[in-house]
Amino acid sequence: MLKRADSTQSGLRNSICAKLTDARERTLLLVASLTDEDLRVQHDPLMSPILWDLGHIAHFEELWLTRNLSGKIEFSEMPGMYNPFEHPRATRAALPLPSLRALMHTAAEIRTDTLAALESADLHSDHPLLAGGFVYNMVLQHEYQHNETILQTLQLKTGEPYRAPRAVAAPPAGSDAFDRMVRVDAGTYPIGTDDRTAAYDNERSRHPVNVNAFDIDAAPVTNAAYEQFIADGGYLQPELWSDDGRAWLADSGALAPKYWTASPDGWLTRTMDVVAPIEPGHPVCHVCYHEADAYARWAGKRLPTEQEWEIAASWDPTTASSQRFPWGDAGPTALHANVDQLFFGTTPVGAFERNVSPLGCYGMIGDVWEWTSSDFSGYPGFVAYPYPEYSETFFGAEYKVLRGGSWATRPGAIRNTFRNWDYPIRRQIFSGFRCARDV
Q1: Which of 23, 143, 200, 400 is the most exposed place for a label (fewest CB within 10 A)?
Q2: What DSSP string describes 11-73?
Q3: In the chain, how many domains are there?
Q4: Is residue 339 domain-shared with residue 373, that is, in the same domain?
Q5: Per residue in 422-437, pLDDT tens?
């Protein structure tokens, strides 16, 4: 029995080591073509200088995988230059950030200490920080999420655009078979998870919810559909917008999604270093909550609640159970969804035939984060762990929940129960939506 336990721990250690290596390789790939100036400059007040992100990734690893590894939590964020609460994003360009070379040397030293500590870590401990490798999965997801944050920054980059290291071409075609709605019957459904090896505290615990029957779009709203909203004067009809939406509209002056520009031949959009006509069959991207809400009202629909979204993504009526992903319990591969693929953009609706939930909803993982109508709050019995600043600090009506991940999301940081959140005015995120309606 002891040998089997040792073997299990060894296998888990090897898996963690491989994932840590993979995560760092992807981070370095994303910044490999950038100059020191690109890394140091603050491309937008909404985002950090990328050097700060890189330093924060390294020091978050140091804090949780060496200093806090024993289970005694000394800090929730490393004090000093890379503490996000000490230094809000708009102030980080003024920090004395080191050179990339110096920072990478520090990151390599931290990684050496991390791997040494991993060798003696008891991954079968009863302590929730160590059990099943939870703290390692937390740190991995942290780096994955900063990969997406870095890509948001690079999309905002002005002047010479970021030359994305595109390794493969996107699928050439999709399908229009998803231009319909899916009926979900009234009932009681399970939401959330009790997993304590990878899920964040805000995903727990698993609990039942009662919902009335509703219809939900079988696919995200496409560029073509959203273009019809624009052509019909959707941005110019105040009755389509909430009070907050009208205030945002007046302040922003928006007339189209972020990165769309009008040309004599139609709408163009920019994705990193590529400017091209909008792809009609791709999900619309870079819209804020208020735009999604106004479109839904224009279409005679509404945005789904996050509970409705999760039911549509996970519930299998044939087994009367929910799945971890729309296609089952196995994680995404290159055949499942547009995540972890170096297309650097959305793909056509219908391009991934396996990305369909048992209820018939397509593309609920990948391509674009999907706005829901839900405020971000804790589930029944919520307990903050391992630190309140990850989730609990942000609970409240000022944040809306997004679900499903985007093309910039790595597969280890997404699942049907994963909850993202942001201000309703945010458009730099890779966000779209699908609609629902009462029946």
Answers
A1: 200
A2: HHHHHHHHHHHHHHHHHHHHHTT--HHHHHS-S-TTS--HHHHHHHHHHHHHIIIIISTTS--
A3: 2
A4: yes
A5: 999 999 999 999 999 9
CA nearest 306: which of 382, 402, 219? 402
Angle, vertex CA 333, rays to CA 329 and CA 339, nearest 5: 105
Mean pLDDT of the chain: 94
Range of the domain at 382: 165-439
**CA torsion 85→35→144→282, rounded to 10°?**
110
Choose the final residue of a domain: 156, 188, 213. Answer: 156
Question: CA torsion 25→145→409→209, rounded to 10°?
Answer: 150
Do 216 and 148 belong together in one domain?
no
At residue 70, the pLDDT reads: 75
Termini Cα distance of the chain: 56
Max CA-CA distance within the chain? 72
Same domain for 141 and 202? Answer: no
Count of helices and strands (H, E) across the chain: 9, 14
Q: Same domain for 12 and 61?
A: yes
Q: Tell me: the pLDDT tens digits for 145-191?
A: 999 999 999 999 988 899 999 988 888 776 667 789 999 999 999 99
Tens digit of each residue's pLDDT (9 = 90 or more) over 289-324: 999 999 999 999 999 999 999 999 999 999 999 999
Report which secondary-structure segment, H or E, holds 215: strand 214-217
d(CA 177, CA 219): 9
Radius of gyration of the chain from its Cα atoms, rounded to whole angstroms: 22
Q: pLDDT tens, 189-226? A: 999 999 999 999 999 999 999 999 999 999 999 999 99
Neighbours of 390 (CB within 10 A): 17
CATH number at residue 197: 3.90.1580.10
pLDDT of 2: 43
Whether residue 71 is predicted with pLDDT greater than 90 in this model: the reply is no
